[in-house]
Automatic annotation (TrEMBL):
It comes from Thiothrix nivea (strain ATCC 35100 / DSM 5205 / JP2). This is Sulfur carrier protein ThiS. NCBIfam families: thiS. It comes from the Bacteria. Signal peptide: none annotated. It holds the Pfam family ThiS.
Length: 67
């Protein structure tokens, strides 16, 4: 297990967690969102391969539609 920060809140997740797995743990997969890990934008195409490391800082921003 390892600790990461998600939007400023500590979370304990399994070692070798990917961005996709983190979104599933947080129950927010399938939504329109952007993810940064340590201030680097992670392209959606890399969510499955982007591995998280202990003490990473993750920011998740939800896209909100409107007009």
């Amino acid at each position: 297990m390892m600790e990461i920060l998600v939007n400023g809140t500590p979370h304990i997740v399994p070692t070798d967690t990917t961005v996709t797995q983190l979104l599933a743990i947080l129950e927010i997969q399938g939504k329109r969102l952007a993810v940064e890990v340590n201030q680097e934008l992670v392209p959606r195409s890399q969510f499955d391969s982007a591995m998280l490391n202990p003490h990473d800082t993750v920011e998740i921003v939800h896209a909100i539609g409107g007009g």
